[in-house]
Amino acid sequence: MALSLRDRIGVDLGRRVPAEEGVAWAAANGVRYIDIQTDIAPNAFESFDDARCRAIREACEAADIQLGLHTLSGVNVAEISPFLRDAADDYLKAYMDLSKKLGAAWIVVHGGYHFTACREIRKAASVERLKRAVDYAEKVDALLVLENLNGEPERAEVHYMPDNLEDTRYYFNEIRSPHLKWAFTINHAHYDPIGIEGFVKGMDMSLCEEVRVADNNGEYEIHMIPGTGTVDFGAMFAMIEGAGFTGHYMNGFGTVDDMLEGREYMIERAREAGVAVD
């Protein structure tokens, strides 16, 4: 049976709470999809021994919760320096290995960032590293989902990759595999000149595995509670659902309770826009 829209809207727990508490909270509140971030406390990577992984995996299975992992965007996947190059590869592999122990269904990854003068060499390094990561994902049967990141002011020295439609399409043209999908962050697209609609029309939506959700002021990077910014959530849901998306959404703003309340706000906006929510 197909899930309702409410069931498809998940919560990015990040490192707000220990993973075990997050799973229990999700089960108690009818949240079917969660992300966790496992770099530092309370979910430090080295704390995930076999016993902890088994307990989290079993709790997710018992509550029918789909778990995803979320790598840090601050780790530069476009690293070109000696020693750090190998560390970036090892970092992505380690997340994939952990995903198998936890039973995680996906891993959000990023393209890293460049400093303006070395854009091309870092972009090439980013694509090649993600190609190696996808090769490993194919071996261990992991799913990587690449996020479109936030654009910075044109004159900023540092820029994330990919941060616009052209670069997002470039990554998926360069790396073709069922083990690499798209995490569409709508609040990043919202203040791009082409907006959310431009990304939906410009991307192959069959690549989209996850839609990441927050409100935004339409001007710069900020994850706002739905209803406090300028995103039209009814139009957003109508557009994305109308494009054939059947995957999950992931709230990423405020506290866990803000994200739970935000889900209800978004459901009402979707209903008003004529989107089937039940």
Report on this structure:
The mean pLDDT is 97. The strands form 2 sheets. The protein has an 8-stranded parallel β-barrel with strand order 1-2-3-4-6-8-9-10, surrounded by 4 helices. The protein is built from 10 helices and 10 strands. Helix 2 (19-28) packs parallel to helix 3 (50-63), helix 4 runs parallel beside helix 5 (119-140) and helix 9 (233-242) packs across helix 10. It has one domain (5-272): Divalent-metal-dependent TIM barrel enzymes (TIM Barrel, Alpha-Beta Barrel), CATH 3.20.20.150. Strand 3, helix 4 and strand 4 (106-109) form a beta-alpha-beta unit. It is globular and about 50 Å long. The chain has helices spanning 5-8, 19-28, 50-63, 84-102, 119-140, 165-174, 186-190, 195-202, 233-242, 256-272, and strands at residues 9-14, 33-36, 66-70, 106-109, 113-115, 144-147, 158-160, 180-185, 208-213, 248-251. The longest helix is centred in the middle third of the chain and has 22 residues, at 119-140. It is α/β, with parallel strands linked by helices and 278 residues long.
Secondary-structure blueprint:
Elements: H1 5-8, E1 9-14, H2 19-28, E2 33-36, H3 50-63, E3 66-70, H4 84-102, E4 106-109, E5 113-115, H5 119-140, E6 144-147, E7 158-160, H6 165-174, E8 180-185, H7 186-190, H8 195-202, E9 208-213, H9 233-242, E10 248-251, H10 256-272
Parallel strand pairs: 1-2, 1-10, 2-3, 3-4, 4-6, 6-8, 8-9, 9-10
Antiparallel strand pairs: 5-7
